[in-house]
Amino acid sequence: MSARVRLGLLLVLLAIAVALPLFVSNFRLFQFTQVATYAIALLGLNMLTGYNGQISLGHGAFYALGAYTAAIMIDKWNVPYALTLPVAGLLCLVAGFLFGIPALRLEGLYLALATFALALAVPQILKYFEDWTGGSQGIVLSKPKPPWGLAITPDQWLYFFTLAVMLVLFFLARNLLAGRTGRAIVAIRDNPTAAQAMGINTPLYKSLTFGVSAGYTGVAGALSALTIAFVAPDTFNVFLSITFLVGIVIGGLASISGAILGGFFIQFVPNWAQDISKAAPWAIYGVFLILTMYVMPFGIAGTARLLMARRLRRAGTARAG
Amino acid sequence: MEILFQQIVSGLATGGIYGSVALALVMIYQATDVVNYAQGEMAMFSTYLAWSMMNAGVPYWAAFFGTLVVSFVGGLLIERIVIRPVEGKPVLTIVIVCIGLLVIFNSVAGWIYSYIQKPFPSPFPPRPIMLGTVVFGAHDVGAIVVTLIVLAFLYAFFRYTTLGLAMRAAAQNPASSRLCGIRVGWMLAIGWGLAAMVGAVAGMMVAPIVFLDPNMMAGILIYAFASATLGGFTSPGGAVIGGLIVGVIENIVGTYVSFIGTELKLTVALAVILVVLVFKPSGLFGRPAVHRV
Amino acid sequence: MAALLEARGLHAQYGWTKVLHGLDFAVEEGGITTILGANGAGKTTTLRAVCGMVRTAGEVRFDGRDIAGRATEDIVRLGIAHVPEGRGTFVNLTVEENLRLGAYGRSSRTGIAEDFEAVYRYFPVLASRKRQVAGTLSGGEQQMLAVARALMLRPRLLLLDEPSLGLAPMVVREIFRIVRTINRERRVSVLLVEQNAAIALGLADQAYLMETGRIVQSGPAAQLRENDAIRRAYLGY
Q1: Could you give phi then psi for residue C37, rounded to 5 degrees?
Q2: CB–CB of A283 and B107 under 8 A?
Q3: E-strand spans in chain B?
Q4: In chain B, what residues touch A249 (CB-CB under 8 Å)?
Q5: Among A160, B85, C78, C87, which residue's beta carbon has the most beta carbons within 10 A?
Q6: What is the pLDDT of residues C163-203, one digit of tens each?
C-alpha cells in the first residue's frame, strides 16, 4: 500500500472517529472510549511481547497501578485529572523498568510464569493496603466535566480526550518503532545473541522496553479509571492480563494497527457472545477465539500483511514473467 | 508432633493431586512447547462426567474407569480436531486456542451442571486410619496410593513399551521420528489423551475434598504451575515431586503461620513460583535451556 | 530392469524459495548412486524431497509407485531409510533404544531380532555401548548408529546424506566399507549425497553432478573419475 493511500485511509478513519459522537448513543460512545483505552494498553503489551519477544501475562498489574494512581491522586489530593496521566505513566514506566531487570534472566515460559504470578497477586495486594486503595470497596470517582464550557456530555468529552491521548501515544510509538530503536528491539527478539554481537546493549533495551510498555499500559489504566469513574481490586484480576494477551494475538503481534483491532475484539466480542447465547456466553467467546486462530493465526493485522505480501509477490513474478 | 505428621500426610495427598496435574502439563509441554492452560478445566469436566455416571446409578469404580476411558478418548480427539489445525503455528497462537478451550469447558460445565457446589463421593471409607497415636484420613491415604499407582503405570508405559518409546522419541525429535516411520501427529494425540486421563484422576481425587463446582480446578491449576516450576518443566518426575513439596508446604504454612488465612494461601503458590524463578528457573530437576547460536 | 527409485522433473522449494529445478535421476536395484556437488547445490534438498520432507512438484517413483506428495512416515514404511544430515540420532535415548525405534514400523519380531544381531556384527562398537546414551558417543560412533538405525528398517533403499561430514578419514573409510558390504550382502540400494567426491566415486556405480539445483553431468562413476576436465572444474582435484 503506497504511503499516500495509507495517509488517505488514516485521515478517513480519523474523520469517522471524530464524527462518531454525532451518530451514537452515550453508552456506545463509552464502549468506543474503552476500545481506545484498551488499544493503548494493547500497544504497550505489543511493544514488549510482539516487537521484543518478552511474553507478559501480567500487564493487568500495570493497568491496575495506573488506574489506582489516578484514582488515589484525584480522590485524596484533588489532582486535576489530566495530570494523573503522565504521573501514572511515569510511575508505571519506572515499575516496569525495575521489574524488567530481574526478568532479564527469564525467558519464554518462565517469564510468562513470573508475570502470571504478578497478575495473580494484584487483587490481593490491592485489598491488603486498604488505607490507600479503599480495600474491596474500591474508590469511587466522579466523571470529569468538559472544560472551557463546551456543550458536550462528559461521555463525549472523555471520548475525545481518550482519542487525543491515543493518537499522541500511537504517533510516538510509531516513530520509536519505525526507527533504529524499533529495529534494535526486533533484532533482540529474533536473535538476541546476534543483536548483542552487533553492539546493541540488549539488557538495557529489554528493560527499557519493559518500562515503556508498562508506562503505556499504566496511562491506559489511568484513562479507564476516569472513564469508568470507579476502581476495585477484583476488576484487575488475572483475567484482565489474559484478555490483553488475547487482544494482541488476535489483533496481530508486532503491529500498531493490530492494537486497535485487538481493542475492538476484546471490547465487543464478549458482548456479541452474550447476544448469541445467554446461557453460556463464554463458550461462544471461546469458539470465537479458536476459530479466529484457525483462520488468522497471525492475528488480523498479521494475516492482512501476509495477504498483501503474497499479492505483491504474485504481481512481481507476473511482471518478471 | 502428631499434628505435624497429619499435616504432612494431608499435604502429600493434596500434593499428589497438584503433582498429577503438573505432570499432565509437563507431558504436553515437553512434546509441544505449549502449556495447556485448559488442563484444569478438562479435568473438572471429566469429574462432572463421572458424577453424571454415578448419579445414573453406575457404581463408583465402574464410573471411575469409565471416566478414564472417556477422558483419554476426549483428550485424543481434542488434539486431533482442535489443536491440529494450529500445529506448527507460533506458540502464542496455540496458547490462545488453549485459553479458548479453557473458557468453553468452564462455561459449558456451568451451563449443564450449574454453579451450585455438589458433593462428590470418595471410594475410601470415612473411617480414619490410626498409626499409633496419629490419625490419618482414609481419603488422604487413598489419594496418595491412587496417585502412586497412576504414576507407576505411566512410568512403566513410557519406559518399557514400544509405544511409550515412540512417544518419547516423537516429543524429543519429531523429524527423526518420522524417518523411523512414527506417526508423530498420533503420538501427540495419545499424549493429550494420557494427560487428560491423569487430569481426570486428579479431579476425582480432589472433588471429595473441595466439592465439585466448575471453578474447582482453577486454584489447583495454579498450584500445579507452582509444582511444575519447582520440579522443572522439563522433568515429569520433578513435576510430581514438586507437587508433593508444594502440597506439604501449603499445609504446614497454613497450619502454623497465623496470618496466612485462606485468602493469602494462594500467595504461598506465588511465592514458590517467584522464589524458584529468581534462584533456579529450570527448577530442581529440570535441565537449563541450551540455546544454539 | 526398471530403476528402484526414479525421479522425473523434480522441483522443490522451501517456502517461496525454489531450490530444485526439474531433476531427473535414478537409482538401479542393487546399485549405488551418488550425487555430488558443492555446498548449496541442493543435494540435501534432493534427499529430503525424495522423503517428502519439503514441498515438491514432479514425479518420484519408488518400485514403480508414485510417492511424491506422501507423508514422510508413509514413504519410510515403504522401505526407504534416510540417514539425514547431522545424523538425527535421538541424543537423550540409549543406543539400543535408537535401534529399536529404527524398527518401529515393522511387525516381525524374529526379523527384528535378526537385524539387531546383524547390525551389531557390522558395528561391533555399538554392541559394546548398547545402554549408553547416544548423545555421549563420538561423532564417528553416532554416524554408525545413524546408519545402523536405518538398517533396522530392513530398507530396500538407503539414503545417505553427507556421511563423511566432520569425521576423521579413517572413520570415513570404515563407514564406507561397511556401506559397500551392506549393499553386497543385503542387496540394499544406496543413494549417496557427498561433498567428498573422491571417496564417493570410489564407492558408487552411477554418479550425478549438481550445481544450484540442476543436474549438470551424469554417467557411470568410473567415467566421471577418469574425466580430467570435469574433475578439475567441478570436483577440485
Answers
A1: 160, 170
A2: yes
A3: 129-131, 134-136
A4: 92-93, 95-96
A5: C87
A6: 988 888 888 998 999 999 999 998 999 999 988 888 898 89
